Fold each of these.
Amino acid sequence: MRVIVGFGGGIAAYKATSLLRLFSKDGHDVVAMPTPSALEFVGQPTLEALSGNPVSSSVFERVEEVNHVRQAELADLVVVAPATADLMARLAMGRANDLLSATILTTHAPVVLAPAMHTQMWEHPATQANVATLREFGYHVLDPAVGRLTGPDSGSGRMPEPEEIFGFAMSVKDSSQKDEKKTLQGRSVVITAGGTREPLDPVRYLGNRSSGKQGVALAEAARALGADVTLIHAHMEVPAPDGVRCVFASSAEELRNAVLENVADKDVLIMAAAVADFRPASYEEYKIKKSETDDAAPTISLVRNPDILREVVSLREQQPELAPETIVGFAAETGSATQSVLELGEAKLRRKKCDYLAINEVGEQRGFGADDNHLTVLAATAEPAQVYQGSKYDVAKALLLHVMRP
């Protein structure tokens, strides 16, 4: 689970650093996200050491990643401790003037706020009104503890202990996971995965380096979100997940037939399989032998395979009842001498005319077989590109929620 631990600018920030350790010790991927004023109370090196991740506080850092959107979509849980009176006021107004507030305004993850301030500030009608508003928004606001405050004063406004915040936050997440399973309830999705193999003779084939991990992650995430899932898979290095309907297709032609047989009346088709663009023009009945008298290698002629993605788009244009409502393509790109990966992806989206195109840059040490992924998702409409980065499961979940949103 990916947890954002936010820090407001209050003295209790020093104590809240223990939350980073509690979440990390429990096996979660933790991102510390202080407000600029919080860094006056606890240093960036401390937060990076305890979380194991880079720390940013401004939306003007890592701009190329649209960092607040990326962090918001990858987060499974956001916990803010301390949540100061100023920070809660800004959240209640929908302000987004630092990375933490912008991320909270963007995320769909559960948000837990642990207030910490002086008693008079907590009891002020403005603060109480802001807390009521935040709870109406669906944020989970703890009541502050009663005890010793900064200086000699005591009263209501003390931040709850980190262990209490941790336990409350985990119970919130457990509850949200039960609700999350209903997110795609009643929706149907067809996902293709793995790499096709085009037979040359009984021994050899033309193939590619796809492991099938991203397609399997998509199927697992869709199942976890409550969707009815059909996984049409070619050859994979990982097992197909339980709880989904699986159809095996070895070659591009077999995969084409399986897709056309399974997409009628489906909500979404996601073409994550690595489908071979070409196949041998002829299949040799017997293994091709080396000549004992001639060093020349055989010449293999290739022909184009069907463009499955474009065919499904055309089918939807002509017979919508036989095609899915939303069509998502994948593009594994290396770039070229004259065009970037993104430029090639944009051109492909225009050619294919699908609704979304997920682009990932691949190479010898990138993409294929890795456990993490970096996707840039382009839309046929004018909506801005979305960037998802993290484990293939996290990326899959974010992609599904984006393309299958109501």
Amino acid sequence: MSWTKVVAITGCDSGLGWAIAARAAREGLVTVAGMYQGTDTEASEALKNLCAHPFKLDVTDSRSVIEFRDYVKSVVQNNPNHKLYAVINNAGVMTIGDYEWQTPQIIENTININLLGAMRVVSAFLPDLRINANNGLKPRIINVASHCGLQPLPGFGPYSASKAGLLAWTRALQLEHVEDDLKVVAFIPGGFVQSSNLLGSQYLNGTAMLENLSEEQRILHEKRITNLNNYLKYASNNTRFDSMNNENLIETFMKTLTENKPKKMYKVESWRYKFYYNLLKIPFPDTIYKWLVKKFLKFPEN
């Protein structure tokens, strides 16, 4: 029997999530798109026009995750030839700033969405994916990670920690499901901040950082935080939901979704990413390492 594949994707309000949901729907996959901002947005309407199924989802809320899973199950159960094929953990947030600056709320939210959110989603869907694996469907879990998870950078501490944790957990899942043929894949996109809302809370969080400083910290850090916040202000402006147009990135992602024998990890790297990240693997003294990072990031220094 020929199965119609159902895919469930988190974080589809904009950027990579919206783009892969749109592409999956165009490819004929039954696509359920988790939308943090709900189903009455322009992004959601555009996905509906592609015959995707938007559904409100907050990956930090266990009840919301269960409702999302139940909706996906209803889509499957209402169509006898539908089978759950892939769960894609794309929802993510990033706040840039030294660890000392970041408030407990910012830190916890980063971990809660990027790592624990993915875990909640997988916990909800894993039994059905495992059953389908044993029935020969070759289903998969795809976790969207980051170069920062492979090579932590200053100013990205909690984000790097969340993505490194995601990669470690992904590897553990790969090994746990070798026998039942459930594929678990890490996807590492290159930088695409300007075509997403990944930094959507950066300016508000920068303001919260300033307000949370002690007097001693303010003397040391206020100028740097203010300059960085002003520099990143435009990156945190809301971009159009459909502004992701990196064809190489989307085509590489589709390999994770469609290849019969997917690799354990797929990476997308511009020449600049490849150059700097390969340099950063060399065990330079920390002073040289930090100089290279500054050249790579191009953030204001004062």
